[in-house]
Design a protein that fits this description.
Layout lengths: L9 E8 L18 E6 L6 E15 L16 E6 L5 E5 L1 H4 L9 H6 L12 E9 L7 E3 L4 E6 L9 E11 L9
Antiparallel strand pairs: 1-9, 2-8, 3-6, 3-7, 3-9, 4-5, 4-8
């Protein structure tokens, strides 16, 4: 008895720092006049699926409290995440579409977006690290990016005092071609 060929999905993990061509750290001045966008763009290869399982955010600062952003005063404009199609047209904005508020302006705002358990509180002059683990796979499921789509972090304030401020994307690139292993 013969068995039909089984088609299965080969999975390759990736961890890519969200970046633009000039800077891999989000401690930039993205004030209203010039917001700065960092992005991870899924491969445009047909037959390749990209999932985002988790977004890891690390913000350094001193005197961190829930009312601040890192160790800075609360932001005036805030940080936002957005999903864009292959032509870079915005299709969805986080946290606006998810949690009912427009941007992340304070450390406490991460709680509504990512379910942060605790916000570190440090004294004046004491360097602290605020880490956020936004696990998309635990809630409604992983974020699927169609070929050529992107997830972007848009900095709209001066974040130069959050050195370093990094975002890492974790997920999978999955081929639906039998036996094909997909490279990072």
């Amino acid at each position: 008895m013969t068995h039909p060929t089984q088609y299965f999905e080969q999975i390759t993990d990736f961890m890519t720092q969200v970046h633009d061509l000039s800077n891999a750290d989000l401690d930039v001045d993205g004030s209203v006049a010039a917001p700065i966008t960092f992005e991870f763009r899924a491969s445009a290869t047909v037959g390749l699926k990209t999932t985002i399982e988790r977004i890891l955010v690390v913000i350094h600062g001193s005197n961190i409290t829930p009312a601040k952003f890192g160790g800075l005063a609360a932001l005036g404009n805030g940080l936002k995440f957005q999903i864009c199609d292959e032509q870079s047209i915005v299709q969805k904005v986080y946290p606006q579409d998810l949690a009912g508020f427009n941007t992340i302006k304070r450390n406490a705002d991460w709680v509504r977006l990512a379910g942060v358990d605790a916000i570190p509180i440090t004294g004046a002059g004491v360097l602290g690290i605020h880490t956020i683990r936004w696990t998309l796979g635990k809630g409604p499921g992983a974020l699927w990016l169609p070929p050529g789509w992107a997830i972007q972090a848009v900095v709209q304030d001066d974040l130069t005092g959050t050195t370093p401020f990094t975002i890492n994307i974790q997920g999978h690139q999955i081929s639906n071609q039998a036996g094909q292993v997909v490279a990072d």
